[in-house]
Amino acid sequence: SSSSRDEALRDKRARILSRGLPKQKPIEGVKQVVVFASGKGGVGKSTTAVNIALALAANDSTKEVGLLDADIYGPSIPKMMSLKGNPELTPKNLMRPLKNYGIACMSMGFLVEETAPVVWRGLMVMSAVEKLLRQVDWGQLDYLVIDMPPGTGDVQLSVSQNIPIAGAVIISTPQDVALLDARKGAEMFRKVHVPVLGLVQNMSVFQCPKCKHETHIFGADGVRHLAKTLELDILGDIPLHVNIRETCDSGQPVVISQPQSNA
Amino acid sequence: SFLPERSNLAGVRHILLVLSGKGGVGKSTISTQLALSLRHSGKKVGILDVDLCGPSIPRMFRVQDSDVHQCDSGWVPVFVDQDKSISLMSIGFLLEKPDDAVVWRGPKKNALIKQFVTDVAWGDLDFLIVDTPPGTSDEHISTVEALRPYKPLGAILVTTPQAVSVGDVRRELTFCKKTGLRVLGIVENMSGFVCPHCSECTNIFSTGGGEELARHAGVPFLGSVPLDPQLSQSLEEGRDFIQEFPKSSAFPALTHIAQQILDGTLQRSS
After folding, report:
1. Residue A207 pLDDT more than 90?
2. 3-state class of B221 per DSSP?
3. In chain A, how many domains are there?
4. Strands B86-90 and B78-79, how do they pair?
5. Rounded Cα gap, residues A208 and A204, in angstroms
6. Which of B186, B178, B118, B128 lies closest to B152 in space, CA to CA?
7. Is the pLDDT of residue B150 over 70?
8. How does pLDDT run across B109-126, given as a tens digit for each residue?
9. Which residue range(s) make up the domain with A233?
10. Cα–Cα distance, B171 to A141 (Å, whole number)
């Protein structure tokens, strides 16, 4: 009976602690939400999120895919998807997502001028994230891909507390400092009860276009070791390829413009 | 504004911030290499790592398992070696396990950053380098506000050449202008990779974006640092790249950046 008392105490504590937290409510019309996160900056979250969103749509043309850029401070999606401009409002006062290559996109980048920094403290960021999630006319989506900012802070907490997430994909490069942060990212998702679908190793190897010599610029296989330690799957291994960067810079992600390349 | 009598920053001659806006461009890498170069010019350097979510600095010096001790004036920074010429402070030292995640909202982060700025007993330093996380958020606002009474020398902005990075750094420049932080210059990192086999240079992350931005914004361009596997490896192993790999491809650019900072401080004092 002491264990049932302990359980009752635990339940009561959980109920009291959860008062005041936002209630988790799914977005109307959106079937599954997948987030792309990392902990570390600059490992290729946006690049991967954009290309995977396009690949999901390309693999099955009956699926509707949406892409949400939750990086309030450094929104990269507009550039990569070649989208610009302020979203229109529907009669119900929802923002209409901008569409390109068949993907519905929403980003902070559409709401502020390109050169204007978003110098906001946490509370404002929370309400901005809520707007980007709920004040958008997503329509009927099979998948909503969310590109997260680096770190383990306000945005990640706000998104995971606000909506049910089907799974998180953690992206990392092979180097030590990136893996350290990827581990923290995985730990964070565990804390907020979001299942981690697996890891993606990005920038794994570089092949010289002239002599084909391979160099592991950022180290080798670090992500595979981490995956084994955390008992997670490796969802993919992406090499460093000039085309990936070139096509993102020009707003024609490699999945669309060069579907036959290695990447 | 009021400065306490024995401020912990009273013995620090110059305070430098390393900012970016974009993640993963090499802020921590540039901070560490700058510290090492300045150390080799005979300077005493401290690094304050205010990246609370992803503290990379301790690992880059291989002191991630060190503990922080208290003294009368506050926290004692961690020394990198016997020389005591480089000292560090990071949340990485305060975590129970190095893999612990710091999942905090803004107000808690702000409180710790204020402590980091005022309560670390740095002693006498020639340079205090402040390494920041990506973005323009709580950490940055709090750091700049807390450092304001101590009149920082300015900020170095790090970018990679590609368009998405340059875009974020343009925003960071505006942040500096809005907060009255002088921009000492822009560093373009990961600028080109020279194949060790055939010496063909491939611009994996494009080229020239940083230099163009500097020209456009009217701030000094401090240099381009190429992708150098020996640099990445040194950081993984906590080695002194500046001492051990003087012939490596990133060495000239990194030492040149440090030299410009030194020249700049000489100019300002004369």
Report:
1. no
2. strand
3. 1
4. antiparallel
5. 13
6. B128
7. yes
8. 899 999 999 999 999 999
9. 26-258
10. 32
Asked if residues A260 and A249 have their Cβ atoms less than 8 Å apart, the reply is no
End-to-end CA distance of chain A: 58
**pLDDT band with cut points at 50, 70 and 90 for residue B193:** confident
Tell me the longest C-alpha to C-alpha distance in chain A: 73
ipTM, 2 decimals?
0.71
pTM confidence score: 0.83
Q: Contact at 8 Å (CB) between B12 and B125?
A: yes
DSSP summary character for residue B148: G
Task: Give mean pLDDT, residues A187-206.
Answer: 89
Nearest Cβ partner of B171 from A115, A175, A183? A115
Give B204 to chain A, closest Cα distance, Å: 5
What gap in Å lies between CA B32 and CA B64, rounded to an integer?
A: 14
Residue A144: CATH number of its domain: 3.40.50.300
In one-letter notation, the amino acid at residue A71 is D
Could you tell me which of A263, A141, A78, A135 has the C-alpha nearest to residue B171?
A78
Q: Which residue of A has its CA nearest to B197?
A: A213
- Hey, are the CB atoms on A80 and B204 less than 8 Å from each other? no
Alpha helices in A19-121 (DSSP H): 45-59, 77-80
Residue corresponding to tokens 């302020």: A86
Residue A252 inside a domain? The answer is yes
3-state secondary structure of A170: strand
Put simply, the answer to whether B202 touches A152 (Cβ < 8 Å) is: no
Which residues in chain A are closer than 8 Å to B197, comparing Cβ atoms?
Answer: 208, 211, 213
Contact status, residue B134 vs residue A41, Cβ threshold 8 Å: yes
A17 occurs within a structural domain: no
| Beta-carbon count within 10 A of B4 CB | 10
Q: What domains, with CATH codes, occur in chain B?
A: 12-267 (3.40.50.300)
DSSP letter for each residue of A188-199? HHHHTT--EEEE
B133 close to B90: Cβ distance less than 8 angstroms: no
Q: In chain B, where does DSSP find H-type helix?
A: 27-40, 57-60, 106-118, 138-147, 163-179, 209-217, 229-237, 241-244, 251-269
Interface of B with A in 24-53 (CB under 8 A): 24-25, 28, 53
Task: Read off the DSSP letter of residue B159.
Answer: E
Domain presence at residue A10: no
Distance of CA A212 to the CA centre of its chain: 32
A192 close to A24: Cβ distance less than 8 angstroms:
no
Which candidate, B75, B36, B39, B89, places its Cα nearest to that of B248? B36
Q: Is residue A13 assigned to a domain?
A: no
